[in-house]
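Archive entry. Fields below.
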Amino acid sequence: MEHIVGIDLGTTNSLIAYVDEAGPQVIADSATGQKMLPSIVSFLPNDRVVVGREAGELARTQPLSTIRSVKRFMGLGMEHVSPDDRKRYRFVDDQGDSASLVRFAIHDRQVTPPEVSAVILRALRDRAAAALQEEVGKVVITVPAYFNDSQRQATKDAGKLAGLEVIRLLNEPTAAALAYGLNTKEEGLIAVYDFGGGTFDVSILRLQTGIFEVLSTNGNTRLGGDDIDQSIAERFLLTDLDEELRGDLQVLNGALRAAEKAKQVLSEQDETILNLAVPSSGVQISRRLSRHEMEAAVDEIVARTLEPCRQALKDAGLETQDIEEVVLVGGSTRMPLVRQRVGEFFGRTPLTDIDPDEVVALGAGVQADTLSGRRRDMLLLDVVPLSLGIETMGGVMSHLIERNTTIPASVKEMFTTAVDDQTAVAVHVLQGERELVQDCRSLARFSIPIEPKPAGVPRVEVTFMIDANGILNVSATDLRTGLERSLEVKPSYGLTDEEVERLLEESIDFAEEDIEQRLLIEARTEADTVLHATDKALSQNASFLQEGEEEQIAQVVQKVREACAGEDYDLIRDLTEELSQVTTPFAQRIMDSSIQEALGEKQLSDL
Amino acid sequence: MPTVVRCWRCQDEHTPQVFCPACEALQLLPPDIDYFTVFGLARAPMLDEQALAKTYYALSRQLHPDLHQTGTAEEQEASLQNTAVVNRAYRTLRDPVQRGRYWLELNGEQLGKENNKIPPALALFVFEVQEKLAAVREAQSAGTSGALTGLKAELDQVRDDLDNRTRGLQQKLAANFSKWAQANGSSELLGELKRVLSDMAYLRTLTRDMDKALSTL
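PREDICTED_STRUCTURE:
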């Protein structure tokens, strides 16, 4: 029987898993042994792409053509792009028609988020094919439970563009519950708190002998570890810089990386040093950061996850004390502050037995196993996260399927004409909880073709079906003739079927480029810049050196030069970093003195 | 409702059921099947909710698309459509108010749009709630946080009252359901049932408005 594999297509990292005799397991890269593939894609000028860790390295020098956290853009339109997003990437703003799907402008081409995700999916597919020694065609891909229809459709399109058959989109918290529920014959009510790199979900489930029934779900598809990094970077690094430097992409990305690193260290230690060195921009910051300071700065972000928890409980008709187990999922739940807040909210210590980075992929593997027909003892009953409806008179949204309805869910709605000989009825499909159309997310528009008859005579029944993927399908039947009517559904923020076909044909070549060589060149260039700056400072400002400092610097300079003669770019980079750090106090003294000079002058001229 | 349907695979003719008695192929439920029949229940407003849940899970284990992924296109389609019907039927029947309404509709009785009108028995209470909600809006737009704290306490109290009334009506509804089962229906009882159902529907709307206001405090 062919394998169906499970994929966790994450904001920060992606993983692929399958089930064998020993149970579910994540497939590691055969060359590096790494299980997590960083969700970073770098587009090279020659129409080639690089994915994963190497792409992360390229981000340092080619930030505009390297896309991180693409999941945050899936299924969105240009109007959802924030000013911060615009600082980091270039977008295609003028798209000619009304379709305003997000498109990155990279080199001389347009790239949509599903295409970027497809690159990640292909890399995972190749990894699994190598490990399993067979073609990988069918997959289960996980999505945040709170993903709307457009975001789900975009994920499915990404799979298609990667040449995969996506047989199921699985909600991430539900996947985690599956992975946990495997070893136990547990019964009871559980909450899954899933705080990842870019999204937050909470799901309340009832477990009973093999049935995983989701009672409610809530979340925020633009809230995650990324926001915590951003907050740390702004508060502790960027705030000291002037406007121009804050807008410098290398500085911004460097600050985000430093913040992420500090955040991780502070999950284990009470204190760390935040380092930001961008020699080309003359930025050199090094400061202490305590866990306490960081927690005070990001507490507001963590607090924002609790309102969805409250709402999910309420929708399930439960109180916190009804919850018997809380499961933590996602990298951001490694933070002690998150564990503490969640523990306080639910009044119990959360479960963290399974690696929060792997649990979703493992659950996807389990579900893939069920779908392949190998196991029949588990069943998921999941829900739609947001209410679905249509626009009615006066710009009001009329609900057809309420949020937290078990899927598959269908509803039939009758349409007729308002004037004689009308040949079509336009339908605007929406998703959201607010009353006014303008406050809900537009999903799609379609038009029902109708035979010209007097007003009110035609009767067309439209079936809105949300399938087990949480994706909407519509079909129409003319009740007078009993004939099915074909509908052309135009997604508000998505690729059309034709566009998917076209993109499949012209799909991007996959990373045959010798990336090692490129990284080596870049590491050497960066080292050269720092060496040059160091030489200059030593010759012009030798008076600022303290005793023994010159020898210390000279030693590292020597090491950097030796490394540059070799080919180990990691070593070159590490030593360059070391040189930056060793010279920081020296540079600080030079800077302090020039500031004093500047101040001194000012005081003189004031007289 | 058709009494006989034909199996898509073996052409066997039988009464509507989930699996063909002859070849065991998954069958598409007739589109006009009523929710009580889906669960093999008599068409009556009173039912054993625990037994209903049990049947729902058992049906899901047979029908769910996840378990028919390797089946033919017909089976996959039947699995999808049937599960959607079962889900909708369960959502309707497990809730006494929705069940009562649905049952009335099956019997040609409409609860109609009456719940836009204030049920007379609730009039005084409704005015009290509306007044409090208006006061909250006023205090919010004026930005007087001191007044809001006092109002919150009052609202909480009204909210408890609302819960009590809802519970009272739930008991009344259950009593009416069982009376109906015993007396086998009467027009007097039907009128009473409709009143209780529309009172409950009204209280639900009120509860929703109230919770919306409370969540902004």
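CURATOR_NOTE: Residues 112-215 of chain B form one domain.
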